[in-house]
Amino acid sequence: MTNHKDWKFSTKAIHIGNKADKESGSVSPPIHLTSTFKQDAVGQTRGFDYSRVSNPTRQRLEENLASLDNAKHAICFSTGMAATTALFQLFDSGDHILISRNTYGGTYRMSMNVLRRQGIEFEWIDTRDTENVEKHIRPNTKLVHLETPTNPLLELCDLTAILNICKKHDILMSVDNTFMSPYGQRPLELGVDVVMQSSTKSLSGHSDILGGVLTTNDDELDERLRFLLKATGGVPSSFDNWILLRSTKTLGLRYQKSSDNATELAHWLADQDILDRVIYPGLKNHPQHEIALKQQKTPNGEVIFGNMISIDVGTIEARDRFLERLDVFTLAESLGGVESLVCVPYDMTHAAIPVKAKLELGITETLIRLSIGIEDVGDLKADLQNALKD
Questions:
Q1: Least CB-packed of 27, 62, 65, 116 within 10 Å?
Q2: How confident is the model at residue 103 (pLDDT cuts 50, 70, 90)?
Q3: Which stretches within 236-390 are classed as H helix?
Q4: Is the pLDDT of residue 1 over 50?
């Protein structure tokens, strides 16, 4: 019998958690839309008792997502924010958490407006500079939470270098890997403790469900995170689990195509004199281009730069004209779908961040974030060209 651990990425994506139904032979396994389960006697279950605790469909999805991250454990949540909240709830009042400075705006909102009121201390720092991370570690620092590339400025940090610092100080390290997905980056392979992903994004890839997942190789962390899921109730629906399990089958194809499109478009955009900034890790003028070459790799070991681009059009008038002229791109929140999306982080994804902080980071009113989909790249280029013309 083939050892599943020897399977390549897309084989695991298609088959792990997707065995044909034993009773009917259905190639697509059934969805378990149930809140509770029959018990044969008091305390005698068939492995499940209540869907907030566990559900066969969610269990199959967790097996699938764990395999893609090369993890022992995956814990699925109702949203990416539910997953991040559970991660931070591992810690107590008085504990200190360091976070990449321009991470997703929802992470800032939850941290500063919810968990900070319960006594957890948060500090937002520039994690591009490894020495800066060590400089900000305190005696009560318990976690360094990184996002690389960051949202929306696509700043990268050296995961291996920062991991060495965390190990030196006996601090946990987590990574928000939503932008890269396990196809483009697998931080657990480097020794990171926990990886968070909004499975709403590239894992799903069709803009039709919400979800979040935490993966880890640490048995104790898995047990604690599952307890938090059970206790707080941020569980995903069986339907969303089933849809996501279907969607990960094509993750490799979708992510490679969207990244290829983004790389071509980024180089073309960089040649347009009308733009103040074009930010993409695949451009040689990106300050952390060499880090991208080192750590952003497909499961086959090939360098990949991701499907996100940020541009700055200089003026609000140019921004509004650009957005109005788009036809293929859709103005909307979110990212990582098969369809190309565009947003203005200042007013949309990062609205919760104070204005002064946004401007200090470089998140201006004229910064536009592009999530590149899998459409024909020629159509995407023509759409952008029309939107950018004088």
A1: 27
A2: confident
A3: 238-247, 251-270, 289-295, 316-325, 355-361, 377-388
A4: no
Domains of the chain as residue ranges with CATH: 4-249 (3.40.640.10), 251-388 (3.90.1150.10)
CA dihedral 71, 77, 81, 84 (to 10 degrees): -40
Closest CA to 127 of 136, 139, 138: 136
The closest of 53, 65, 371 to 197, measured between CA atoms, is 65
Q: Return the amino acid letter for 386.
A: N
Instruction: Identify the H or E element spanning 63.
Output: helix 56-68
SS3 24: coil
Q: What is the pLDDT of residue 180?
A: 98
How many other C-beta atoms can be found within 10 angstroms of the C-beta atom of residue 68?
A: 25
Q: How many CB atoms sit inside 10 A of residue 163's CB?
A: 20
* Cα 183 to Cα 135: distance, rounded to the nearest angstrom: 32
pLDDT of residue 310: 98
Angle formed by the axes of helices 105-113 and 80-88, to 10°? 40
- Strands 73-77 and 141-147 turn out to be unpaired
d(CA 280, CA 217): 31
- Looking only at the bridges linking them, the beta strands covering 96-100 and 141-147 are parallel
Distance CA 343, CA 263 (A): 19
The residues annotated as belonging to the active site are 52, 104, 176, 201
Residue 152 preceded by cis peptide, ω within 30 = yes
pLDDT at 312: 97
The helix (H) or strand (E) run that includes residue 201 is none
Residues 281 and 152: beta-carbon distance below 8 Å: no
- Other Cβ atoms closer than 10 A to 129: 12
Identify any residues that bridge with 335 across adjacent strands, giving them in sequence order.
none
CA–CA gap between residue 29 and residue 22 (Å, rounded): 9
Per-residue pLDDT at 164 exceeds 90: yes
Buried-state track 143-157, b at ≥16 Cβ within 10 A, e below 16: bbbbbbbbbbbbbbb
Quote the tokens at residue 171.
């601090």
Contact 148, 184 (CB under 8 A): no
